[in-house]
Amino acid sequence: MRSDPQQTPEEKRAQKAQMRRAFGLLRRAAKPDRHHLGWAVLWLIVAAALEVIGPLLGKRLIDEHLLPRALDWNAIGMLLGGVLLAGAASTWLRYLQLSRLAGLAMRSVQRLREQVYGHVLRLPMAFFDRAITGQLVSRVTNDTEAVKGLYIQVLFVILDSTIVLVGTIAAMAWLDWRLMLIVVALMPFVLLIVWLYQRLSAPAVTRARQLRSDINAQMAESIGGMTVLQANNAQARFAERFAATNQEHYTQRVAEIRANAWLLRPALDMLNVVLLAAVIYFFGMRGGSNAMSTAEVGVLYAFINYIARVIEPLIQITMQFSQLQQSVVASARVAGLLDETGALEHGKPRHSAAANEAPAGSPAISIRHLDFAYIDDQRVLHDLSLDIAQGAFVGIVGHTGSGKSTLLSLLLRYYPARHGSILMNGVPLDDIDIEQFRNEVGLVPQDPFLLAASAYENIDMARGLPRERIEAAARAAHAHDFIMALEDGYDTLLGEGGSRLASGQKQLIAIARALAGSPRILLLDEATSRIDSQTEQIVQEAMSELRGRVTIVAIAHRLSTIRDADRIVVLNHGRIEETGSHDALMQIEGGLYQRLYLLQQLAA
Ligand SMILES: Nc1ncnc2c1ncn2[C@@H]1O[C@H](COP(=O)(O)OP(=O)(O)OP(=O)(O)O)[C@@H](O)[C@H]1O
């Protein structure tokens, strides 16, 4: 890997750490295929040896048969056959080993991708607050693909080329070590030429790569915002912008290819010629004015053959370095993501207590002196204490930013509480097995988030629930009738994001999804904010049917939704300002709830 002399010690340390991370990742992902690597190296050495043997046999043919005119056809046939056989066997062996290594690389990347995706699925919600979706997707797809590049470069090119290079130099040294030294002395020029080429082409290569991701980003943005784009008649302007980016990408690619055509190839060919000339000149000098000794013609033949075998692997190795650098960076990014922890909620519960082993008569939810901040020193919830009885229906209201969704996130264990505690059926949340917890708590989010799948799959959410349970949940959510009216009933595909359905219907599917898990606690996050009054009525009916059986905590902007709640909690700047039934809260003259309610009445 290239190291820049202007790098500070910290940068050098960071680069080394990056290398360690990248190669650690490579080693771990390839572990199950370790034995393949050992065999591949062994067979590549055999292949390199066979490749080196060819010119040696050629040398014998010249020295022992052609020059002395000792035309022993049997021996000549054997030697020629040997040359052919060695060449064919070497090519075949290398091909087999390279496909073995390709298989290893592909399987490792497949494992890695699954590992990364699985890891992302288990990361805590706090991670996703910082994460950028596009970058995460790129980590799972592009970066793991770049890791494959690392395997291919390290395993294929560098390993294979190094073995061929070492074998060829050894054969040269065996034939004539002084001549070998001349070839080796000229080798650094190959490195110099490739280094110069990379320096010259690097800006174009980097820019082309940036432009390629711009092209992807523009495409994704346009498709995502197609409705807005077409409504504003912006197609022509977007097409122009895209064409400009595309044109620049083309220009940069051409610049890169030009650097290759004008500098790299001619300079390397020139060096090849210089090497040949140097070897021939040395022969001439050594022989003095006498004719070349017969034994040396064979050596010359073998050397000429070997020169190409030295130059090509050297070019290959050097050319890989910039690519290698990028792959190392990508691999280190993947390794960094895999090191991302903090998934404490997914760790083993401290006591593995089950929520249903709770002390009898304890509240469904008990919040004690709860404090929370997303960012240090910016507290969002202050000393919150609240008991919610089994089977109660509790509404949470408050101004925007008062902390309603945050409270719900803590109840859902998306974030750990900073201070204080939350107990479910008398058991602290951290002590409840996470899977069991998720089974017992259902969520209806503000955005129903539908998959591009059937109605059945959307309610089931990969839990493998029986059909009857799915239908019962849909009935309870008042979604059954409209699902049955779709052309394939529960098997109807709902389109991306449930585009086939109206907002209210999507919300009813989300309610059915939550109910299908038969939760003991149901959390609703403004589940009625995007639906019409008629659907809201349906949701309310569904909720009232659940009353007493399921503990319901509902955040609501539209106060009519929670008017009938057993208790309404009014949050203000992260504190409980008021609590009581609708009627009781309306009695508080100038109270926050009363003001909110009257304001909504006026607006209606
Ligand atoms: N992921 C986050 N990272 C940092 N701060 C956040 C995050 N989510 C919310 N906040 C902040 O926490 C405070 C409470 O937000 P929260 O979403 O809980 O309010 P809310 O009462 O649900 O508001 P709304 O009714 O508008 O949804 C706000 O000041 C908000 O800026």
Automatic annotation (TrEMBL):
Domain ABC transmembrane type-1, first and last residues per copy: 39-326
Major localization listed first in the record, in broad terms: membrane
InterPro entries, sorted: AAA+_ATPase (IPR003593), ABC1_TM_dom (IPR011527), ABC1_TM_sf (IPR036640), ABC_transporter-like_ATP-bd (IPR003439), ABC_transporter-like_CS (IPR017871), P-loop_NTPase (IPR027417), Type_1_exporter (IPR039421)
Gene Ontology terms for molecular function: ABC-type transporter activity; ATP binding; ATP hydrolysis activity; ATPase-coupled lipid transmembrane transporter activity
Transmembrane residue ranges: 37-56, 76-96, 149-173, 179-197, 262-284
The name this protein goes by in its record: ATP-binding cassette domain-containing protein
Coiled coil: none
Originating species: Pseudoduganella plicata
Its membrane topology: Multi-pass membrane protein
One GO cellular component, as annotated: plasma membrane
Gene3D superfamilies documented for this protein: ABC transporter type 1, transmembrane domain, P-loop containing nucleotide triphosphate hydrolases
Keyword Repressor: no
Alphabetical keyword list: ATP-binding, Cell membrane, Membrane, Nucleotide-binding, Transmembrane, Transmembrane helix
Ranges for domain ABC transporter: 365-598
CDD domains listed in its UniProt record: ABC_6TM_TmrA_like
Subcellular compartments: Cell membrane
Secretion signal, residue range per the UniProt entry: none
Claim: Translocase is one of the keywords in the record: no
